[in-house]
Amino acid sequence: MKKACEEYRVVLLDQRGTGLSTPLTTSSLSQITSAAEQVEYLKHFRADSIVKDAEFIRLHLVPDAKPWTVLGQSYGGFCAVTYLSFAPEGLKSVLLTGGLPPLGSACTADTVYRACFKQVQQQNEKYYARYPQDIQVIHELVRYLNESEGGGVSLPSGGRLTPKMLQCLGLSGLGSGGGFERLHYLFERVWDPILVPGAKKTISYYFLKEFERWLGFDQNPLYALLHESIYCQGSPSKWSAHKIGSECESLFDPIKAIKEGRPVYFTGEMVFPCIFDEIHALRPLKETAHMLAHKEDWPPLYDVNVLNNNKVPVAAAVYYEDMYVNFNIAKETASQIAGIRLWITNEYMHSGIRDGGSHVFDHLMGLLNGKKPLF
User: Fold this and answer.
1) What is the total count of domains within the chain?
2) Which residues participate in catalysis according to the annotation?
3) Is the Lipid metabolism keyword given for this protein (predicted)?
4) For residue 374, what pLDDT is reported?
5) Does 173 lie in the same domain as 33?
6) In this structure, what DSSP letter does residue 374 have?
7) Which residue range(s) make up the domain with 350?
8) pTM, two decimal places
């Protein structure tokens, strides 16, 4: 922000359904009483609609309605590529950080998750190489959860922590700068201290509360409901992460991992059907989520022909070890955007714009301005 404000007037867009842009919450969605009506409402919250919002704002805010420069991080980058596809006349230049989407037709979620599960496996291996003592800690925790009544324990908000839900901590813990450390410190406080000899071992309230805070799905149902749809064009996702995850179930099965003496692997940026059973606030949205997963008539998000003939200057940071946006898929997409200038680096993970924002921003601006080499 500091670096950008040296040369730009910065506008922070709360994408529709987030921040102050009519935020979607589980309570506000309850005003729409049927699942079918909720689906009809939610279909307007993808990148195509966000780009229309951005264009509306640009025409009213920018002097003389001139083109502006946009920076898209992660999903924001996906939106920026949609912008390049359908409204390039509104763009002066584009900066992308960890945000090059797959461009294939139909639903590319299956392709994305096949690649991402491999990357998640590698991140797990790195985590346990750094904190091998956590193998036993997590074994003990998974065993405790599995042997509890109903296969889990109650969460403060009324949901349930099960072994499979525990694995979802990888979403925040494995793919960003400082994530390994935060995950390790979380597990340092998993158990209540024994104050009275012989007292029953219990999971600490701190850990249960922090688990809910880490996931945040109850406060951000839009992510849980629409995550897989960001990959859909004319076909359904059909719970793609769950489907592809079953192909490597033996590797990610927490109970089997304990029996075989292997580390319990966490998952990554994947939404599974079970969260609509185990997270209390999401239970009323289970039918809606199922209908969205099987919705077939998603409109296109990208125009490859337009991207092939792109005239807008584009610079992109592609993180070699990005757990969320696969490196090979990002490179394939880049090959379809005419004139794009890539900075490929392993200096940062997906969170590069947060961890080294001034450096990342300055480097990308250098690419746009011809001050950096193009290789």
Assistant:
1) 2
2) 74, 297, 350
3) no
4) 58
5) no
6) -
7) 1-102+301-374
8) 0.95
Residues 6+ apart with CB under 8 A from 102: 108, 111, 112, 231, 329, 332, 333
Residue type for 211, please? F
- Please, which contacts does 159-162 make with residues 24 or more away whose CB atoms are closer than 8 Å? 159/212, 159/218, 159/278, 159/279, 159/280, 159/281, 160/277, 160/278, 161/203, 161/208, 161/211, 161/278, 162/274, 162/278
Amino acid making up residue 107? C
Between CA 258 and CA 50 the distance in angstroms is 44
Report the b/e string of 211-229 with b at 16+ CB within 10 A.
bbeebebbebbbbbbbbbb
65, 14: one domain: yes
**Is residue 330 within 8 Å of 281, Cβ to Cβ?**
no
Closest to 187 in 3D by CA, of 201, 171, 218, 166: 166
> Which of 241, 269, 292 is the endpoint of a domain?
292
pLDDT of residue 373: 67
- 70: β partners: 94
Average pLDDT for runs of 10 along the chain of length 375: 92 94 93 97 97 97 97 97 98 97 85 93 97 98 97 96 97 94 98 95 97 92 96 94 91 96 96 96 97 96 97 97 94 96 94 93 92 65
Q: Give yes or no: residues 113 and 41 share one domain.
A: no
Of the three residues 261, 292, 323, the one that is the final residue of a domain is 292
Q: Which two tokens stand for residue 147?
A: 């042997």
What does the pLDDT read at residue 105? Answer: 74
CA angle, 140 then 144 then 147, to 5° = 135
- pLDDT value for 104: 82
